[in-house]
Here is the input.
Amino acid sequence: MPLPLDRLRLRSLLLLLSLSSLQAAAVARPVVCTTTLEAPSVLLIEGGEPASPVEVTRCARVQSTAALMEERFYTWTAPYASGVNIRHQLADIYGFAVAGPDGERWMGFGFPDQTIVWDGSAVENTYRMLLENQSDPIPWRTVDIPNGFSGSIAEDMASPVPDGVQELEVFSPVRALW
Here is the structure.
């Protein structure tokens, strides 16, 4: 009779392991890896020859801009819907900051008006960082467009050339090779 009991334990253990691996897979986020060539840590090999560049691969989690902004928005204050209960009302009265998208993370001491200011600062700093990452550090320079208000239409119109005067072509046109 001990054999069915062992099978039951094994099945329940396998079921628990499979459920825990599914939960871990559901939490996983996309990852982006970049490979670069970098200078070696030692510039000369023992034989006196210069060392070749080293290939370095770095991988990091990817977070969407919307998810990042939502995370920053609820840094110090819980969302309104999850923040309307007895626990959060008592925390607000005594000056305890409870935050996070689910409203379950204790952040420290801060009344609601202070935590709103802190959330605003977090959103502003994130917005500035996103704008800085979006733009190129060296701005593109282009030629200015001519201003239409710096002259008159009469000056811009070309005067017609009389029909009797024609220029002689010294060289005949040559077709380009490309």
